[in-house]
TrEMBL record:
Record InterPro entries: Alpha_CA_prokaryot-like, CA_dom, CA_dom_sf, Carbonic_anhydrase_a-class
Signal peptide per UniProt: 1-19
Alphabetic keyword roster: Lyase, Metal-binding, Signal, Zinc
Span of domain Alpha-carbonic anhydrase: 39-336
Database matches in Pfam families: Carb_anhydrase
Principal EC category: lyase
Cross-referenced PROSITE patterns: ALPHA_CA_2
Gene3D superfamilies in the cross-refs: Alpha carbonic anhydrase
CDD domains given in the database record: alpha_CA_prokaryotic_like (cd03124)
EC numbers for this chain: 4.2.1.1
Similarity-based family: Belongs to the alpha-carbonic anhydrase family.
Protein name from the UniProt record: carbonic anhydrase
Species assigned in the record: Phialemonium thermophilum
């Protein structure tokens, strides 16, 4: 197996960088049975997102630095259209025999076994789902623990991605230490000042002063999280994530009940916009659907996933239709 992996890796380095977001579509057909190709781009240093356009000879990934409808983005009002669940059809076959769960080097990915999405007059076929850590899209300004990308392709080669926010469960982790986290000094004071400014702005200053016993009070204030649905599907998949800790490795999953996921997503709506792949070659014309329904996994599960993925989120891009942030930065740097 090790020899096969090395051979595949060498071949993929000689070719172009592979795109995990589009793996299994016409852009990047899946490797032959039993082989897992490893991506050559990365998330830090010279192979990271700021330099993706320079990889692969400079032309293949040019949209990463020049495209004006790039993903991910901050999902704030005005950047998307809301699509009610009644305006689309979503079906994914259960996988009673399980399926492949692979480490592509830049993400971990589950291979699809059939499913269809009908939206805006087009029909797409389900290809795979994979994960980004932390989330790539921001949920109205906020990063979420994970984002699941469910990738679809139409017969006309159009790509659609359903990007599901995956948050941590509440209450499983031990309570925070009361005095040891930020016990003294300026960081705690600046936290207090920041909090007080926000609460003064919302007219709550008096109530806060009364119950505010210092940093201890701040740390024990409850964190309000949007509702999320615990996902036994993700718990099942991730129960084997440590078995594919090595890039290029793969394992067969237990039976996967995809209908659980579909039913959850269809209970909400979908925030839609036209964007791009979030990995090289950053191709545009990708239909994004970000469900208002979020999933939830156990904190211990998240820690296992983090130990394997590490970090694989592209930074938030400019508002769709506005210049690419790298174009803006290059123009300003040239003026100096
Ligand atoms: Zn992705």
């Amino acid at each position: 197996m090790a020899f096969v992996l090395r051979a595949v890796f060498a071949a993929s380095v000689a070719a172009r960088a592979l795109a995990s977001c589009a793996y299994g579509t016409h852009l990047f057909p899946r490797a032959e049975e039993g082989a897992v190709e490893i991506n050559t781009f990365g998330y830090a240093g010279t192979v990271g997102p700021l330099n993706w356009a320079s990889l692969d000879g400079g032309e293949a990934n040019v949209l990463c630095a020049t495209g004006t409808r790039q993903s991910p983005i901050d999902m704030v009002d005005g950047s998307f259209q809301m699509v009610p669940a009644s305006d689309l059809r979503l079906e994914i076959a259960d996988m009673p025999e399980g399926t492949e769960f692979e480490n592509l080097g830049t993400t971990v990915e589950v291979v699809g076994r059939g499913g269809s999405l009908e939206v805006a007059g087009k029909t797409y076929e389900f290809q795979q789902f994979h994960f980004h850590l932390p989330s790539e899209h921001l949920d109205n300004g906020t990063s979420v623990a994970l984002e699941m990308h469910m990738v679809w392709e139409s017969p006309e080669k159009d790509v659609a991605v359903i990007g599901v926010f995956v948050d941590l469960d509440a209450g499983q982790a031990p309570p925070p230490a009361k005095r040891s986290v930020v016990p003294h000094g300026r960081p705690g004071h600046s936290l207090r000042r920041g909090l007080r400014r926000r609460q003064e702005a919302s007219g709550e200053a008096a109530a806060v002063e009364e119950g505010f016993g210092g940093v201890q009070g701040f740390l024990t204030m409850p964190i309000v999280r949007p509702a999320a649905t615990p996902s036994s599907l993700l718990e099942t998949v991730f129960s084997q994530v440590e078995e594919i800790a090595t890039p290029g490795s793969s394992v067969k999953t237990a039976p996967l009940v995809m209908s659980e996921l579909v039913n959850t997503l269809l209970q909400g709506s979908f925030q839609s916009y036209s964007g791009s792949l979030t990995t090289p070659p950053c191709s545009e014309g990708v239909l994004w659907l970000i469900p208002t329904q979020k999933l939830q996994i156990r904190t211990a599960t998240f820690e296992k996933v983090r130990s394997v993925i590490g970090f694989n989120a592209r930074y938030p891009q400019n508002t769709p239709g506005e210049p690419n942030l790298l174009d803006i930065a290059a123009t300003r740097a040239a003026r100096r």
